[in-house]
Amino acid sequence: MEALPARVRAYVAGVILLALLCPVPPPGLPSPGIPPDLRVPWWPAVLLAAVYAGCERLARSRLVAAPHPGATFYPVLLAGAFLLPPHAAALVALPGALLLPVEQRPYLARRLWRAGRLVVAVWAAGRVHAAAGGPDTVADCDMPGALATAGAAVLVFCLVLTLLDGGVPAPASGVRPRGRQAAALAAWRRQCLRSLAPLTVHGLAGLMMALLWRSAYGPVAALLVLLPMGVSWWAFAQYHRERAAHQATIRALVQAVDIKDGYTRGHSERVGRASMMIARELGLDDERVEVLRFAGILHDVGKLGVPTRLLTKNGPLTPEERRVIELHPEYGHEMVRGISFLGEARAAVLHHHERLDGSGYPYGLAGGQIPESARVVAVADAFDAMTSTRSYSRARPVPVALEELRRCAGTHFDPRMVGALVRAIGRAGWHPAVTADDDRSATLPGPAAPVTGRPGARR
Predict the structure, then answer these.
(1) How confident is the model at residue 448 (pLDDT cuts 50, 70, 90)?
(2) Alpha-carbon torsion, ordered 269, 272, 273, 277, to 10 deg
(3) Domains delineated in the chain
Protein backbone atom coordinates (compact mmCIF):
# COMPACT_ATOMS: atom_id res chain seq x y z
CA MET A 1 0.00 0.00 0.00
CA GLU A 2 3.06 2.24 -0.10
CA ALA A 3 2.17 3.65 -3.53
CA LEU A 4 -1.21 4.93 -2.31
CA PRO A 5 -1.72 8.37 -0.74
CA ALA A 6 -1.97 8.41 3.05
CA ARG A 7 -5.70 9.21 3.04
CA VAL A 8 -6.45 6.33 0.68
CA ARG A 9 -4.32 3.95 2.75
CA ALA A 10 -6.23 4.93 5.88
CA TYR A 11 -9.58 4.49 4.16
CA VAL A 12 -8.71 1.09 2.70
CA ALA A 13 -7.32 -0.05 6.07
CA GLY A 14 -10.58 0.99 7.75
CA VAL A 15 -12.68 -0.98 5.25
CA ILE A 16 -10.42 -4.04 5.66
CA LEU A 17 -10.71 -3.82 9.45
CA LEU A 18 -14.49 -3.63 9.17
CA ALA A 19 -14.42 -6.67 6.87
CA LEU A 20 -12.41 -8.63 9.43
CA LEU A 21 -15.17 -8.06 11.98
CA CYS A 22 -17.98 -9.22 9.68
CA PRO A 23 -17.30 -13.01 9.91
CA VAL A 24 -17.36 -12.92 13.73
CA PRO A 25 -20.52 -14.69 15.01
CA PRO A 26 -22.84 -12.48 17.07
CA PRO A 27 -22.28 -12.92 20.80
CA GLY A 28 -25.01 -14.05 23.15
CA LEU A 29 -28.47 -14.30 21.69
CA PRO A 30 -28.76 -14.67 17.92
CA SER A 31 -29.72 -11.70 15.81
CA PRO A 32 -33.26 -11.45 14.44
CA GLY A 33 -33.93 -14.02 11.75
CA ILE A 34 -30.88 -16.18 12.59
CA PRO A 35 -31.76 -19.65 13.93
CA PRO A 36 -30.92 -20.17 17.61
CA ASP A 37 -28.40 -22.86 16.71
CA LEU A 38 -25.31 -20.89 15.74
CA ARG A 39 -23.51 -23.95 14.46
CA VAL A 40 -23.40 -22.99 10.83
CA PRO A 41 -23.53 -25.76 8.18
CA TRP A 42 -20.12 -24.86 6.80
CA TRP A 43 -20.23 -27.17 3.82
CA PRO A 44 -22.69 -24.89 1.92
CA ALA A 45 -20.43 -21.93 2.70
CA VAL A 46 -17.35 -23.77 1.43
CA LEU A 47 -19.20 -25.00 -1.67
CA LEU A 48 -20.52 -21.52 -2.50
CA ALA A 49 -17.07 -20.00 -1.94
CA ALA A 50 -15.53 -22.56 -4.31
CA VAL A 51 -18.27 -21.98 -6.90
CA TYR A 52 -17.82 -18.21 -6.66
CA ALA A 53 -14.06 -18.47 -7.10
CA GLY A 54 -14.53 -20.82 -10.06
CA CYS A 55 -17.07 -18.51 -11.70
CA GLU A 56 -14.75 -15.53 -11.32
CA ARG A 57 -11.84 -17.49 -12.76
CA LEU A 58 -13.94 -18.68 -15.70
CA ALA A 59 -15.34 -15.18 -16.26
CA ARG A 60 -11.80 -13.86 -16.73
CA SER A 61 -10.66 -16.65 -19.00
CA ARG A 62 -10.30 -16.20 -22.73
CA LEU A 63 -13.39 -18.34 -23.25
CA VAL A 64 -15.70 -15.79 -21.62
CA ALA A 65 -13.67 -12.63 -20.86
CA ALA A 66 -15.20 -10.38 -18.21
CA PRO A 67 -16.85 -7.18 -19.51
CA HIS A 68 -14.19 -5.18 -17.68
CA PRO A 69 -11.47 -5.97 -15.12
CA GLY A 70 -13.62 -4.93 -12.14
CA ALA A 71 -16.69 -6.98 -13.13
CA THR A 72 -17.90 -9.46 -10.49
CA PHE A 73 -20.23 -12.46 -10.69
CA TYR A 74 -22.69 -11.54 -7.91
CA PRO A 75 -25.43 -14.25 -7.99
CA VAL A 76 -23.37 -16.69 -5.91
CA LEU A 77 -22.57 -14.02 -3.32
CA LEU A 78 -26.24 -13.02 -3.03
CA ALA A 79 -27.30 -16.66 -2.86
CA GLY A 80 -24.95 -16.99 0.11
CA ALA A 81 -26.59 -13.95 1.73
CA PHE A 82 -30.01 -15.60 1.27
CA LEU A 83 -28.97 -19.07 2.45
CA LEU A 84 -26.45 -18.51 5.25
CA PRO A 85 -26.21 -16.47 8.44
CA PRO A 86 -24.54 -13.12 7.70
CA HIS A 87 -21.22 -13.96 9.37
CA ALA A 88 -20.93 -17.12 7.26
CA ALA A 89 -22.16 -15.50 4.03
CA ALA A 90 -19.43 -12.85 4.38
CA LEU A 91 -16.77 -15.53 3.91
CA VAL A 92 -18.11 -16.69 0.53
CA ALA A 93 -16.40 -13.79 -1.26
CA LEU A 94 -12.95 -14.27 0.27
CA PRO A 95 -11.31 -16.98 -1.89
CA GLY A 96 -12.35 -15.50 -5.21
CA ALA A 97 -11.55 -11.92 -4.22
CA LEU A 98 -8.12 -12.73 -2.77
CA LEU A 99 -6.89 -15.26 -5.32
CA LEU A 100 -7.90 -13.58 -8.55
CA PRO A 101 -5.19 -11.47 -10.21
CA VAL A 102 -5.37 -7.68 -10.34
CA GLU A 103 -4.39 -5.52 -13.28
CA GLN A 104 -2.61 -2.60 -11.60
CA ARG A 105 -0.26 -1.86 -8.75
CA PRO A 106 -0.30 -2.01 -5.78
CA TYR A 107 -1.46 -5.60 -6.17
CA LEU A 108 -1.87 -6.55 -2.51
CA ALA A 109 -3.78 -3.40 -1.61
CA ARG A 110 -6.14 -3.88 -4.54
CA ARG A 111 -6.77 -7.52 -3.61
CA LEU A 112 -7.49 -6.61 0.00
CA TRP A 113 -9.73 -3.73 -1.07
CA ARG A 114 -11.69 -5.97 -3.43
CA ALA A 115 -12.14 -8.61 -0.74
CA GLY A 116 -12.99 -6.09 1.99
CA ARG A 117 -15.71 -4.25 0.09
CA LEU A 118 -17.37 -7.51 -1.01
CA VAL A 119 -17.27 -9.00 2.49
CA VAL A 120 -18.85 -5.89 4.00
CA ALA A 121 -21.53 -5.68 1.28
CA VAL A 122 -22.49 -9.37 1.54
CA TRP A 123 -22.59 -9.18 5.33
CA ALA A 124 -24.83 -6.09 5.23
CA ALA A 125 -27.16 -7.75 2.70
CA GLY A 126 -27.31 -10.89 4.84
CA ARG A 127 -28.13 -8.88 7.96
CA VAL A 128 -31.00 -7.07 6.26
CA HIS A 129 -32.29 -10.32 4.74
CA ALA A 130 -32.17 -12.07 8.11
CA ALA A 131 -33.75 -9.16 9.99
CA ALA A 132 -36.62 -9.05 7.48
CA GLY A 133 -37.36 -12.76 7.97
CA GLY A 134 -35.83 -13.80 4.67
CA PRO A 135 -34.55 -17.23 5.81
CA ASP A 136 -38.09 -18.30 6.70
CA THR A 137 -39.54 -17.14 3.37
CA VAL A 138 -36.80 -19.02 1.50
CA ALA A 139 -37.31 -22.19 3.57
CA ASP A 140 -41.09 -22.04 3.00
CA CYS A 141 -40.73 -21.10 -0.71
CA ASP A 142 -42.96 -18.08 -0.01
CA MET A 143 -42.40 -16.24 -3.29
CA PRO A 144 -43.96 -12.83 -2.45
CA GLY A 145 -42.15 -12.72 0.88
CA ALA A 146 -38.91 -14.03 -0.60
CA LEU A 147 -38.98 -11.41 -3.37
CA ALA A 148 -39.60 -8.59 -0.89
CA THR A 149 -36.83 -9.58 1.51
CA ALA A 150 -34.40 -10.34 -1.32
CA GLY A 151 -35.17 -6.96 -2.88
CA ALA A 152 -34.33 -5.20 0.37
CA ALA A 153 -31.08 -7.15 0.64
CA VAL A 154 -30.08 -6.34 -2.96
CA LEU A 155 -30.81 -2.65 -2.41
CA VAL A 156 -28.58 -2.61 0.67
CA PHE A 157 -25.89 -4.56 -1.23
CA CYS A 158 -25.94 -1.95 -4.01
CA LEU A 159 -25.89 0.98 -1.58
CA VAL A 160 -22.97 -0.41 0.43
CA LEU A 161 -20.87 -1.11 -2.68
CA THR A 162 -21.44 2.34 -4.16
CA LEU A 163 -20.93 4.05 -0.78
CA LEU A 164 -17.62 2.27 -0.26
CA ASP A 165 -16.46 3.04 -3.80
CA GLY A 166 -17.60 6.66 -3.55
CA GLY A 167 -15.85 7.10 -0.22
CA VAL A 168 -12.36 6.63 -1.66
CA PRO A 169 -10.64 10.00 -1.06
CA ALA A 170 -9.99 11.83 -4.32
CA PRO A 171 -6.89 13.95 -4.86
CA ALA A 172 -7.30 17.69 -4.44
CA SER A 173 -8.19 19.26 -7.78
CA GLY A 174 -8.50 22.96 -6.98
CA VAL A 175 -12.29 22.84 -7.16
CA ARG A 176 -14.13 24.52 -4.30
CA PRO A 177 -15.07 22.03 -1.52
CA ARG A 178 -18.76 22.63 -2.10
CA GLY A 179 -18.31 21.96 -5.83
CA ARG A 180 -16.35 18.78 -5.11
CA GLN A 181 -19.04 17.54 -2.76
CA ALA A 182 -21.82 18.27 -5.24
CA ALA A 183 -19.91 16.55 -8.05
CA ALA A 184 -19.14 13.56 -5.83
CA LEU A 185 -22.78 13.26 -4.78
CA ALA A 186 -23.97 13.45 -8.38
CA ALA A 187 -21.40 10.83 -9.44
CA TRP A 188 -22.43 8.54 -6.56
CA ARG A 189 -26.11 8.89 -7.46
CA ARG A 190 -25.43 8.05 -11.11
CA GLN A 191 -23.30 5.07 -10.14
CA CYS A 192 -25.92 3.77 -7.73
CA LEU A 193 -28.73 4.02 -10.27
CA ARG A 194 -26.55 2.48 -12.97
CA SER A 195 -25.63 -0.47 -10.70
CA LEU A 196 -29.10 -1.17 -9.34
CA ALA A 197 -30.60 -2.72 -12.49
CA PRO A 198 -27.84 -5.33 -13.14
CA LEU A 199 -27.62 -6.11 -9.41
CA THR A 200 -31.38 -6.72 -9.36
CA VAL A 201 -30.96 -9.30 -12.12
CA HIS A 202 -28.09 -10.92 -10.21
CA GLY A 203 -30.23 -10.85 -7.07
CA LEU A 204 -33.09 -12.68 -8.81
CA ALA A 205 -30.66 -15.35 -9.96
CA GLY A 206 -29.26 -15.62 -6.43
CA LEU A 207 -32.78 -15.93 -5.00
CA MET A 208 -33.62 -18.66 -7.51
CA MET A 209 -30.48 -20.50 -6.43
CA ALA A 210 -31.47 -20.20 -2.77
CA LEU A 211 -35.03 -21.42 -3.39
CA LEU A 212 -33.88 -24.43 -5.41
CA TRP A 213 -31.20 -25.19 -2.82
CA ARG A 214 -33.85 -25.35 -0.08
CA SER A 215 -36.28 -27.32 -2.26
CA ALA A 216 -36.39 -31.04 -2.88
CA TYR A 217 -34.14 -30.61 -5.92
CA GLY A 218 -31.15 -29.57 -3.81
CA PRO A 219 -27.83 -27.83 -4.54
CA VAL A 220 -27.29 -29.45 -7.96
CA ALA A 221 -30.44 -27.82 -9.35
CA ALA A 222 -29.43 -24.54 -7.71
CA LEU A 223 -26.09 -24.54 -9.49
CA LEU A 224 -27.82 -25.04 -12.85
CA VAL A 225 -29.13 -21.49 -12.50
CA LEU A 226 -25.58 -20.32 -13.22
CA LEU A 227 -25.69 -21.63 -16.79
CA PRO A 228 -28.04 -18.98 -18.24
CA MET A 229 -26.28 -16.34 -16.14
CA GLY A 230 -23.00 -17.44 -17.68
CA VAL A 231 -24.42 -17.14 -21.18
CA SER A 232 -25.72 -13.64 -20.46
CA TRP A 233 -22.34 -12.71 -18.96
CA TRP A 234 -20.64 -13.90 -22.15
CA ALA A 235 -23.04 -11.88 -24.33
CA PHE A 236 -22.44 -8.81 -22.18
CA ALA A 237 -18.69 -9.33 -22.50
CA GLN A 238 -19.00 -9.34 -26.29
CA TYR A 239 -20.83 -6.03 -26.11
CA HIS A 240 -18.02 -4.56 -24.03
CA ARG A 241 -15.43 -5.89 -26.46
CA GLU A 242 -17.23 -4.12 -29.27
CA ARG A 243 -17.42 -0.97 -27.16
CA ALA A 244 -13.68 -1.19 -26.46
CA ALA A 245 -13.07 -1.47 -30.21
CA HIS A 246 -15.17 1.68 -30.71
CA GLN A 247 -13.11 3.51 -28.11
CA ALA A 248 -9.89 2.38 -29.76
CA THR A 249 -11.12 3.66 -33.13
CA ILE A 250 -11.93 7.06 -31.64
CA ARG A 251 -8.60 7.25 -29.80
CA ALA A 252 -6.70 6.49 -33.00
CA LEU A 253 -8.51 9.27 -34.89
CA VAL A 254 -7.99 11.79 -32.11
CA GLN A 255 -4.31 10.95 -31.74
CA ALA A 256 -3.85 11.47 -35.45
CA VAL A 257 -5.41 14.95 -35.18
CA ASP A 258 -3.29 15.79 -32.12
CA ILE A 259 -0.11 14.77 -33.90
CA LYS A 260 -1.03 16.89 -36.93
CA ASP A 261 -2.06 19.97 -34.95
CA GLY A 262 0.13 20.21 -31.86
CA TYR A 263 -1.41 23.47 -30.62
CA THR A 264 -4.77 21.78 -30.06
CA ARG A 265 -3.37 18.71 -28.30
CA GLY A 266 -5.91 17.70 -25.66
CA HIS A 267 -8.54 20.02 -27.14
CA SER A 268 -10.68 17.14 -28.41
CA GLU A 269 -10.84 15.40 -25.04
CA ARG A 270 -11.75 18.63 -23.28
CA VAL A 271 -14.51 19.41 -25.77
CA GLY A 272 -15.80 15.88 -25.21
CA ARG A 273 -15.79 16.49 -21.48
CA ALA A 274 -17.59 19.84 -21.78
CA SER A 275 -20.15 18.30 -24.16
CA MET A 276 -20.80 15.56 -21.61
CA MET A 277 -21.27 18.16 -18.85
CA ILE A 278 -23.82 20.01 -20.98
CA ALA A 279 -25.67 16.80 -21.85
CA ARG A 280 -25.90 15.75 -18.22
CA GLU A 281 -27.10 19.19 -17.18
CA LEU A 282 -29.84 18.91 -19.81
CA GLY A 283 -30.94 15.62 -18.23
CA LEU A 284 -30.22 13.44 -21.28
CA ASP A 285 -30.01 9.69 -20.82
CA ASP A 286 -26.64 7.98 -20.44
CA GLU A 287 -26.59 6.68 -24.00
CA ARG A 288 -27.00 10.16 -25.49
CA VAL A 289 -24.46 11.58 -23.05
CA GLU A 290 -21.94 9.06 -24.34
CA VAL A 291 -22.76 9.86 -27.97
CA LEU A 292 -22.31 13.58 -27.32
CA ARG A 293 -18.97 12.86 -25.68
CA PHE A 294 -17.95 11.06 -28.87
CA ALA A 295 -19.18 14.05 -30.86
CA GLY A 296 -17.04 16.43 -28.84
CA ILE A 297 -13.98 14.21 -29.11
CA LEU A 298 -14.29 13.79 -32.88
CA HIS A 299 -15.54 17.25 -33.86
CA ASP A 300 -12.20 18.29 -35.39
CA VAL A 301 -11.24 14.97 -37.00
CA GLY A 302 -11.63 16.65 -40.41
CA LYS A 303 -8.43 18.58 -39.73
CA LEU A 304 -6.64 15.49 -40.99
CA GLY A 305 -7.61 16.71 -44.46
CA VAL A 306 -6.28 20.26 -43.92
CA PRO A 307 -2.63 21.09 -44.72
CA THR A 308 -0.53 21.28 -41.54
CA ARG A 309 0.98 24.62 -42.53
CA LEU A 310 -2.47 26.23 -42.31
CA LEU A 311 -3.24 24.72 -38.90
CA THR A 312 0.03 25.96 -37.42
CA LYS A 313 0.25 29.31 -39.21
CA ASN A 314 1.03 32.17 -36.80
CA GLY A 315 -0.13 35.05 -38.97
CA PRO A 316 -3.62 35.88 -40.27
CA LEU A 317 -5.21 33.57 -42.81
CA THR A 318 -5.89 34.64 -46.36
CA PRO A 319 -9.44 34.23 -47.70
CA GLU A 320 -8.32 31.18 -49.70
CA GLU A 321 -6.68 29.60 -46.63
CA ARG A 322 -9.78 30.28 -44.59
CA ARG A 323 -11.96 28.54 -47.17
CA VAL A 324 -9.67 25.49 -47.04
CA ILE A 325 -9.88 25.28 -43.25
CA GLU A 326 -13.66 25.74 -43.36
CA LEU A 327 -13.86 22.47 -45.26
CA HIS A 328 -12.76 20.46 -42.20
CA PRO A 329 -16.33 19.72 -40.98
CA GLU A 330 -17.14 18.11 -44.32
CA TYR A 331 -13.87 16.20 -44.33
CA GLY A 332 -14.67 14.96 -40.83
CA HIS A 333 -18.19 13.90 -41.78
CA GLU A 334 -16.85 11.91 -44.70
CA MET A 335 -14.42 10.14 -42.36
CA VAL A 336 -16.99 9.13 -39.73
CA ARG A 337 -20.25 8.71 -41.65
CA GLY A 338 -19.63 4.98 -42.09
CA ILE A 339 -19.13 4.44 -38.32
CA SER A 340 -22.65 3.44 -37.32
CA PHE A 341 -22.19 3.47 -33.54
CA LEU A 342 -21.56 7.24 -33.56
CA GLY A 343 -25.23 7.99 -34.31
CA GLU A 344 -26.05 11.70 -34.02
CA ALA A 345 -22.38 12.46 -33.32
CA ARG A 346 -21.84 12.42 -37.08
CA ALA A 347 -24.21 15.38 -37.49
CA ALA A 348 -22.30 17.26 -34.80
CA VAL A 349 -19.02 16.71 -36.65
CA LEU A 350 -20.58 18.23 -39.79
CA HIS A 351 -22.50 21.14 -38.23
CA HIS A 352 -20.59 22.23 -35.09
CA HIS A 353 -19.52 25.50 -36.80
CA GLU A 354 -23.06 26.51 -37.78
CA ARG A 355 -24.48 29.54 -35.96
CA LEU A 356 -27.97 30.23 -34.74
CA ASP A 357 -28.23 33.35 -36.93
CA GLY A 358 -27.22 31.45 -40.07
CA SER A 359 -23.76 32.99 -40.42
CA GLY A 360 -21.84 29.77 -39.78
CA TYR A 361 -20.50 27.11 -42.09
CA PRO A 362 -20.44 24.82 -44.02
CA TYR A 363 -24.14 25.18 -44.99
CA GLY A 364 -25.31 28.32 -43.19
CA LEU A 365 -28.02 26.54 -41.20
CA ALA A 366 -29.99 28.63 -38.70
CA GLY A 367 -32.00 28.05 -35.53
CA GLY A 368 -33.75 24.71 -35.32
CA GLN A 369 -32.18 23.54 -38.58
CA ILE A 370 -28.96 22.92 -36.62
CA PRO A 371 -29.01 19.47 -34.95
CA GLU A 372 -29.09 19.51 -31.15
CA SER A 373 -25.83 17.58 -30.92
CA ALA A 374 -24.08 20.22 -33.05
CA ARG A 375 -25.41 23.02 -30.84
CA VAL A 376 -24.00 21.25 -27.77
CA VAL A 377 -20.57 20.73 -29.33
CA ALA A 378 -20.48 24.32 -30.69
CA VAL A 379 -20.72 25.71 -27.15
CA ALA A 380 -18.20 23.23 -25.75
CA ASP A 381 -15.78 23.91 -28.61
CA ALA A 382 -16.03 27.69 -28.22
CA PHE A 383 -15.54 27.49 -24.47
CA ASP A 384 -12.38 25.38 -24.70
CA ALA A 385 -11.03 27.49 -27.55
CA MET A 386 -11.35 30.61 -25.40
CA THR A 387 -9.87 29.03 -22.26
CA SER A 388 -6.90 27.39 -24.06
CA THR A 389 -3.69 29.10 -25.11
CA ARG A 390 -3.07 28.85 -28.86
CA SER A 391 -0.39 30.09 -31.21
CA TYR A 392 -2.52 33.14 -32.00
CA SER A 393 -4.25 33.88 -28.67
CA ARG A 394 -3.83 33.51 -24.94
CA ALA A 395 -6.26 31.71 -22.69
CA ARG A 396 -9.08 33.72 -21.19
CA PRO A 397 -10.15 33.16 -17.58
CA VAL A 398 -13.14 30.85 -17.27
CA PRO A 399 -15.56 33.60 -16.04
CA VAL A 400 -14.61 35.80 -18.99
CA ALA A 401 -15.18 32.93 -21.44
CA LEU A 402 -18.57 32.15 -19.90
CA GLU A 403 -19.58 35.80 -20.10
CA GLU A 404 -18.59 35.85 -23.78
CA LEU A 405 -20.74 32.77 -24.39
CA ARG A 406 -23.68 34.52 -22.70
CA ARG A 407 -23.12 37.58 -24.87
CA CYS A 408 -23.20 35.48 -28.04
CA ALA A 409 -26.14 33.33 -26.92
CA GLY A 410 -29.08 33.70 -29.26
CA THR A 411 -26.95 34.80 -32.22
CA HIS A 412 -24.05 32.36 -32.40
CA PHE A 413 -24.95 29.79 -29.73
CA ASP A 414 -28.07 28.14 -28.36
CA PRO A 415 -28.92 29.89 -25.04
CA ARG A 416 -30.12 26.59 -23.57
CA MET A 417 -26.74 24.95 -24.14
CA VAL A 418 -24.86 28.00 -22.85
CA GLY A 419 -26.96 28.03 -19.68
CA ALA A 420 -26.36 24.32 -19.13
CA LEU A 421 -22.58 24.76 -19.39
CA VAL A 422 -22.61 27.78 -17.06
CA ARG A 423 -24.56 25.84 -14.42
CA ALA A 424 -22.39 22.72 -14.75
CA ILE A 425 -19.12 24.67 -14.43
CA GLY A 426 -20.51 26.72 -11.55
CA ARG A 427 -21.19 23.51 -9.68
CA ALA A 428 -18.17 21.36 -10.61
CA GLY A 429 -15.56 23.85 -11.84
CA TRP A 430 -13.31 23.59 -14.88
CA HIS A 431 -9.62 22.75 -14.58
CA PRO A 432 -8.35 21.42 -17.92
CA ALA A 433 -4.73 20.72 -18.78
CA VAL A 434 -2.90 23.58 -20.46
CA THR A 435 -2.44 23.11 -24.20
CA ALA A 436 0.28 25.69 -24.83
CA ASP A 437 3.89 24.73 -25.40
CA ASP A 438 4.77 26.73 -22.30
CA ASP A 439 2.49 25.62 -19.47
CA ARG A 440 3.10 28.82 -17.56
CA SER A 441 1.65 31.03 -20.28
CA ALA A 442 -1.90 30.01 -19.47
CA THR A 443 -1.58 31.41 -15.96
CA LEU A 444 -0.23 34.77 -17.05
CA PRO A 445 -2.66 37.64 -17.47
CA GLY A 446 -2.99 38.99 -20.95
CA PRO A 447 -5.36 40.64 -23.36
CA ALA A 448 -8.41 38.71 -24.39
CA ALA A 449 -8.44 37.20 -27.83
CA PRO A 450 -10.88 38.70 -30.32
CA VAL A 451 -14.21 37.00 -30.78
CA THR A 452 -13.68 36.65 -34.48
CA GLY A 453 -10.69 34.60 -35.52
CA ARG A 454 -9.57 31.38 -37.07
CA PRO A 455 -12.30 29.04 -38.27
CA GLY A 456 -10.36 26.02 -36.99
CA ALA A 457 -11.17 26.97 -33.39
CA ARG A 458 -14.61 28.43 -32.72
CA ARG A 459 -14.42 31.81 -31.01
Answers:
(1) very low
(2) 170
(3) 6-224 (no CATH), 241-443 (1.10.3210.10)
